[in-house]
Amino acid sequence: MSGQQLIQLKIAARSVTSLDLAMTSFLIDIEARRLTPQTLKYYRDQLGPFLAFLGVQEVTTPEEINANHIRTYLVSLQQRGLADASLHSAARAIRAFGNFLVREELLEKSPMRKVQMPRVEKPIKPAFAPEEVRRLLAVCDTERDSAIVLCLLDSGCRAVEFVSLDVQDVDMKTGRVLVRRGKGRKQRVTFFGARARKTLVKYLMKRGEVHPDAPLWTSLNTGERLTDWGLRQMLGRLGQRAEVLHCHPHTFRRTFALWSLRAGMNIYALQQIMGHSDLSVLRRYLALVEQDLQQAHNKHGAVDSLF
User: How many CB atoms lie within 10 A of CB 92?
Assistant: First the structure.
């Protein structure tokens, strides 16, 4: 078969490739790369409505997608009142899909290349105040709940990482915690401090004999591994009893980052512990820490205090 014939076959194959088949191929590629189930769900949730929108526009193949389709879709989301972050999330998924189609030679160029990503403000969401953490601990009525509050706050783990820990992942002597199922399936190391470990040991002793490969955190009702949803429900109940707003797993993670920087932790060490691929998020936390310093200087600066 000549080179020209191969090119013609590729063109013919592309002309009959439906968007549904292209979407299926994209999702298979995600699974083949062993990305997390959460990532797979994100792309399904984001691209499903986009493909439905294209269907209404009678767009049935990748070649028919153009930049105006994407812009019109994003405007429709904006008109529905979606937040800036949600618009940006939708655009990221479409961009990834377009790049995949180019890599697979289903398109020569991505239609997203002419579309500017929606601008999104990224304010730092609330972190806990020390008094709020004390109130959360005060309403804990089990050793497990106290250990979860302290260990979640002390490690900076994401919710999924936290509930995936096994007993053997924690070195009780050093506090070293091996996060085996980090974002992007990357392993990393974080730590539980002495106070957190002390409470954790009390909780494990309550459970009796525990096998090393047993889940570190279990449901009080079933005895099975605590799920991501179960963790969120448990923290939500604590927050209601303690009258603490934003009592979500990620609030603990944000608090860990902010308090660590305020205590003087090196930003690069913090990046490694939290598993961030870059410093963009931590730089915003660092800006808050610098505001703390400025406020302290405004209040206690040597010259202004003198006069």
Answer: 16
